[in-house]
Design goal:
Elements lengths: L2 E5 L11 E10 L8 E6 L5 E5 L7 E10 L2 E2 L6 E4 L4 E4 L4 E2 L1
């Protein structure tokens, strides 16, 4: 099972240098930050989208996104949760489309 995660542009005032990519952090709900997986995605300040695969059906996951610049990784977004019945589409504005 997989989910598609989409995020919008990063406002200039929140950028700490040129954005070179994003980190998508995900894991089963309730897992520690250290236990969550990270998926690197190339991109720029216009936002992006990626598919996270290999997830377990009927499981609740927490997903967060952070921008990456030459200065390091920025602050992660507020966590969103989604339950994977089958394949779903998750947008960081909170919309889940089965």
């Amino acid at each position: 099972t997989s989910i598609t995660v989409q995020w919008g542009p990063v406002e200039c005032i929140h950028q700490n240098g040129e954005i070179t990519g994003y980190r998508v952090r995900y894991g089963e709900e309730g897992s520690s930050e250290e236990a969550r997986s990270i998926q690197m995605v190339s991109g720029d300040s216009s936002g992006g989208m990626t598919t996270v695969s290999g997830l377990t059906k009927e499981t609740v996951y927490t997903v967060q996104v952070a921008a990456v610049t030459s200065s390091g990784t920025g602050v992660y977004s507020d966590p969103l949760t989604v339950k994977t019945p089958d394949d779903v589409f998750l947008s960081l504005n909170g919309t889940v489309i089965p």
